[in-house]
Amino acid sequence: MSENLLQKVMAESDQPINLCYQCKKCSVGCPMIDEFDFPPNMVMRMIQLGMKDELLKSKAIWMCVSCETCGSRCPNEIRIAPIMDSLRAQCLNEGVTPADPVTVALHSSFINSIKTFGRIHEATMLMAYKWKSKNFTSDLDVGLKLFLKGKIPLLPKKSKNMAKIKEIFKEAGK
Amino acid sequence: MEKKLGVFVCWCGSNIAGSIDVDLAVAEAAKLDGVVHAENYMYMCSDPGQQLVKDTISEKGLDGVVVACCSPRMHENTFRKAAGAVGLNSYLLEIANIREQCSWVHQNNKPLATAKAVSIIEGTLDKVKENLPLETITIDLTKRVCVVGGGIAGIMSALDLANADYDVAIIEREPAIGGHMAQISQTFPYFHNILELLQKKIDEVKAHPRIKLYLNSEVEVLDGYVGNFNVTIKTRPAFVDPAKCTACGKCLEVCPVSVADEFNRGLSQRGAIFRYNQTEGARIPVLEQRDCLHFVDVEDVEMDAGAGEKCTACVDVCPENAIDLGTIRTFNEEFVGAIVMATGYDLYSPAKMPEYGAGKLPDVIDALAFERLLDPTGPTKGQVLRPSDGQVPKKVVFIQCVGSRDPERHKAYCSRACCMYTAKQARLYRQQVEDGTAFISYMDIRSDSRDFEEFVQQGMEEENLVYIRGRVAKVIQEDGFLRVFTTDTLSSRQLEIEADLVVLAMAMEPKAGIRDLAKKMNVTIDGDAFLSETHIKLYPVESSTKGVYLAGCGQSPKDITDTVSQALATAGKIQTMFSNETLIADPLIAEVKNDVCSGCGICIDICPYGARLMNDFTRITDVNQAVCQGCGACIAACPNKACELINSTSRQFIRMIGDFAGKAEAV
Amino acid sequence: MATTYSYYPGCTSHSTAIEYIEASLAVIDALGIGLNELPDWCCCGAASAHNLSTSLALGLSAFNLAEAHKTGRDLVIPCAGCYGNLAQADHVMRHDEKERQRFEKQFDFNYDGQVKMLSLVDLLAREELRPAIKDLVKKPLKGLKVVCYYGCAIVRPGAITGVDDTENPRRIDKMMADLGAEVIDWSCKVDCCGADLGLTDAEKTAELVNKIVDYAVAAEADCLVTSCALCEANIDIRQQRLPILYFTEMMAEAFQIGDRQRWWKKHFNDPSKLF
After folding, report:
1. I want to staple A66 with a disulfide (CB 3.0 to 4.6 A). Which of A81, A163, B369, B427 is the partner?
2. CA of C180 to nearest chain A CA: how many angstroms apart?
3. What pLDDT score was predicted for residue C1?
4. CATH 3.40.50.300 matches B586-646
5. Do C195 and A120 touch (CB under 8 A)?
6. Does B464 lie at the interface with A, CB-CB under 8 angstroms?
7. For C223, how many CA atoms within 13 A lie in the half-sphere containing its CB?
């Protein structure tokens, strides 16, 4: 049992996780529930009981798409999305191998694009993602389809104050 | 003389008329012996229907009436009142139930249902023919009350009654009133200081000219019946004369005895002479005879040097000569009209849960002991400290449902107050020990009253109480801490918690000795020995014996709020009873044929109400009219057929059965 | 009505949501509302920054909040995802004194809470705009059966978006009814389309999308109307049963303005046959 997991996640997410009384309304409304190894209500319980290792290795923390359905229905107004953010950050910061490396690859490609241009450049971002995830076949046609519709410009546009943006990344340790 | 009889058949809309030919029934009834009038009406219980019955009684001079309608439970009173209003003795009107017992159960055969209805009417007519006109019985009423038990239930009931200007006697077994409430530190859900609340009420009781306190006392014998009880009270000697004692405390210092203090749940020691508790009223010491060396064989007791045979250390030191070891027990009698049973509860013994180590492991304590730790006037001055080493516990595990909800091994029932007082205790602990952790092992959190759920939620939010759903398997002692083996059923994980202190929310059970007392008071108890109410919904504070009322945890486990509500309800019920000058009872009771009764006494044993008594002069049995409920048990039991129920005699019933059976043969 | 707002285009304004932005700008122009693009802006972090680092996500959004505050005007954010991120950052600054001071210092601005974050629905569904919108309708969308799909980001969480009925929002429904369309009540207004999962788990996204389209088809809708670029892309690309349109495209069609034929070609399910 990790004694300070609850306090740490509560502080980072600013959510009253200690109030969860397991009504499971979050889990029954979750669109991603089939992909979770632990349903959201169990994630709350595991945080309360300090089951840190299992949580950081779980697929659940990477499968949440932050749709906020659970948060808007929770009788105790606990938003689970920011809680998942906190757990994901802990997973990466503590060097735990993420259960879903593909998702991490996608997000890393995204933020690298932002780091480079200040904005997303879909063409380079998608290529980086495919390269990082070593996943060349699946859903490649989405990018291709968008490209053919003229929705993926070849030339990136940049923010002006790139120095400030680099500073943001530095402060966040990314 | 032949009675002039009338028959009134009700349609009850289509309830009766739908399956019974009401015109034919009237025609058949009119032909029966003695019937001078028969008719039917759509709703006989309506105002015009009742008027019809009244007018006909007056016009035709009826002296016996049968209303054929629904069950007598519905409208017997209605029609008897109507008959009484026009001068016919109410007991000469009977109901023939042709709805529940005929039309509703025979909906597919109108001719046969009609024939059955006619035979029910005929049988009832035959009963009415032999019915006697009766008058209600008047019983004397003594407007004084005896309250058994001086906990918060007894205190609140007594105060209300005394304030209504009735004399009240409180009988308290312990040396002080206040009960378990005096052991508790604060209330839920508002954290009120209990000693403050209670002390105010205790002071009111003591100052009240209408209230007489019997401390160290128990009911020895109860005689009589509602309105006329005679309570014999046995009082143990207190040995200390409160008129002389200045509460200087010198006797406490010299007493060589040291035993566990019950009031502090064994967390401190006391002498044989001691202060019972911390309420103002208990400043004067009491002497417990069974602990005192003066009264026991010296060789049986470990004692300090200097205490000789027939120890008189306290007597010798008392500057006021207030202690008299020669005091003996006394008996008193109280004549009262009503009794309140406010007998309270005990905690189920933790020793019966050896898997939790209570009694063996010093740091496993029960919930009342924890209350003593929280009490600023308690053995630790309100500091939560481990009994074993006086250290502040950093991890406390509270276990709920210990002995409760455990039907096969312990108690099947929920003790009701534990969820809330555990939340309160855990919150108070966390407020005191900021870096502490409070775990609460629970099965369900039952927080079903105003602000209760909010109170528990607030505990989770503000004091970070960790609720763990599951029953603790066992608690063992390791080096310097307790290991608590449990499970979290919400995550299906086994857990082991290293705790400094374990608090057991033990089941509440009726006070020891309640079985004997219930027998003395002639009130029934349930399988767990809780006093039974007459009806859980409509007569919740009435016992099985008229005039004896129930309040507090003796009836079932409950919190202070519910206890006080119930106590005030008993006071209200008794005041309603006392608003009359006399009591009125139904005359439909048993009577004895003096020339047949052999005085065998079987009826005395069989009577569930204690209404049958041997007349020492005639050597046959009497019926106490105030107590008899007309149940008929003695009639069935009497080997000589010497008992009869008035207006329900064997003769009447045999004739009725004959009427039904005769018709049945014809069918 | 002639208020001018600051405008945050977001990355997709030049790529996947190009027709949305063009239609929206045309409608806003027709209504006489002025928009000034922020002098500088960066990506809000999209769905990715918060997944990896809360402080990165907050930092990126704060950069843009600072730019908006320097203009002193309310900020219009057409992309639902960008709106969600910026509104979240605004919420944090409004309630977390420490974070606010940190960002004020880092981006050299004064957060006074006066600059509001507005989604395009916030901007266009205001009650006072209704008469103007009705006046501009040249070709009412008569006989067109539509279901309105709100998705997640402009609705939840209610405490941040200010949407009071998060289970059954009605603002786009009202606008479509004002354009003359037949608005059908249905069950998936606020269901999740899978969001960024579209790029990592095609199968799951298809499952979610198909459920939404199943319900829309069962409600006998001719098309689905949305205000979110990610929802549009996810739903349009993964099925061939139903055209998906932005609500501002519908407005432009009713107003008969803009290069609509070009926009229709940007869709995977051709909507031109509807009009």
Report:
1. A81
2. 30
3. 43
4. no
5. no
6. yes
7. 27
